[in-house]
Amino acid sequence: MSSTQRSTALRSTPTPVDRNEAAPVTETEAGVPDPAPEAAPSKPKRRSPVLPVILAALLAGGAWYGYEWWTNGRFMVSTEDAYIEGDIAIISPKVSGYVQTVNVSSNQFVRAGEPLVTLDGGDYQIAYDQAVANKETAELSVKRIDAQIIGGEASVAQAQAQLGALEASVRGAEITANRASELASKSVGTTADLDNAKVALDQARANLVAGQAAVDSANANLSILKAQREEALNTVRLQQLAIDKAKRDLDFTVLKAPYDGVVGNLAVQAGDLVSAGKRLAALVPTNELYIEANFKETQIADLVPGSKVSIHVDAYGDQPLEGTVTSIAPASGAIFSMLPAENATGNFTKVVQRVPVRIALPKDALAGGHLRAGLSVIVDVDTRTAPDGQALAAK
Questions:
Q1: CATH 2.40.30.170 boundaries in the chain
Q2: What is the distance between the alpha carbons of residues 86 and 360, in angstroms, rounded to a whole number?
Q3: Which of 218, 234, 219, 223 is nearest to 142 (CA)?
Q4: Which CATH number among 1.10.287.620, 1.10.3720.10, 3.40.50.150, 3.20.20.60 corresponds to the domain 122-251?
Q5: φ, ψ at 277 (rounded to 5°)
Q6: What are the CB-based long-range contacts (under 8 Å, 24+) for 336-345?
């Protein structure tokens, strides 16, 4: 190998270097350092369109909400504390007895006057028949007394006629006695004739007194008969009252529906012994339902009977109904509770009171028969629809 090749090989053979020492710099590396690579030109960052869209949506939503509140919302008075109510009739007997038939079933629709429950009316029928018989007996007594009164009036007439005859006898005896006295004074008549005339006059006067007593007695008997007749007439009236009561009791053995409605909570069956006042069933009116809405006391200032109401029934979703405010309770609900609050003693915590407001449901909704008492509703009262036609000023 030539010297030139050896030197080249030495240059090309790497020299071992300690790991802790820096690597030797070659001739090439010892020269001018290579220029740094040029940086790539930066691209402009693209902004996400989501944030502006969200901001725009929020602004639009806020503007729409503000406009809606300004045009409608500030005039609305709303509450969710509202329910459909109805004047439910409790079907209870007014008389006691055994149940003979139950003519309806639970959840059945009935018309006013239809029989719901029938009690055994045998005893009440007997009482009615007995009252009728007693009245007939009393009427016969009146007829008998009427006949006696006719006889009594005849007796009075007869006694008065006899009294007239006796009065005539007295006048005749007086004339005879006077004539006998004149004759005796002239010594024409005898003393015996005068005495006989006086005796006849005294007897005629006594008969007149007896005749007057007979007239008085006949009149008294007639008065007694007339009093007995009035008593008999009162008995007839009492028996008529007994008939009326027996008839009512007999009619009460058939329990009828007081109005159109649906039977619920039926708790009776044939053969049961029921007493007066026992609850047998309930009748819920379908055409007489209404809404009882409990508004806060801070909301009732703008509530006026006659205002229109938007009603949303929870059971039927987005099917609003239009009702009308009919009345506002004279006191808050707490006043009518069984245990009204007493704030005169102890600590006081102010609680916002609620005032019941009655709202009428539309007749077409009631006619459909889909509404039920107890359903929850949401009501929105439009205070601009007050009866005077003037919108309330915004607060």
A1: 74-87+287-385
A2: 11
A3: 234
A4: 1.10.287.620
A5: 90, -5
A6: none
One of 2.40.160.60, 1.10.390.10, 3.40.50.620, 2.40.50.100 is the CATH number of 89-121+254-281, namely 2.40.50.100
Predicted confidence (pLDDT) at residue 358 exceeds the cutoff of 70: yes
Q: What is the pLDDT of residues 262-290, one digit of tens each?
A: 999 999 999 999 999 999 999 999 888 99
Tokens of 298: 């801070």
- In sign, the C-alpha dihedral spanning 377, 383, 384, 387 is positive
Q: Which residue has the higher pLDDT, 192 or 352?
A: 352
The third-level CATH classification (topology) of the domain covering 74-87+287-385 is: Elongation Factor Tu (Ef-tu); domain 3 (2.40.30)
Listed residue (103, 106, 95) closest to 267, CA to CA = 106
Q: What residues contact 149, with CB distance under 8 A and at least 6 apart? A: 222, 225, 226, 229
Average pLDDT of the segment spanning 142-157: 90
Whose tokens are 């270097």? That residue is 17
pLDDT at site 117? 97
Q: Please name the residues in contact with 200: beta carbons below 8 A apart, sequence gap of 6 or more.
A: 173, 176, 177
Q: In the numeric block, which tokens belong to residue 89?
A: 């009739």
Per-residue pLDDT of 17-60, as tens digits, reads 444 444 444 444 444 455 555 555 555 556 667 777 788 788 88
pLDDT score, position 316: 85
**In the chain, which residues fall in CATH 2.40.50.100?**
89-121+254-281
In this structure, of 193-197, 207-211, 263-267, 383-387, the range with the lowest mean pLDDT score is 193-197
State the average pLDDT over residues 294-308. Answer: 92
> Do residues 298 and 355 lie in contact, with contact meaning Cβ atoms separated by under 8 Å?
no
Q: CATH 1.10.287.620 in the chain, residues? A: 122-251
CA triple 160-166-169, angle to 5 deg: 150
CB 104 within 8 A of CB 263: yes
Whether pTM > 0.85 for this model: the answer is no
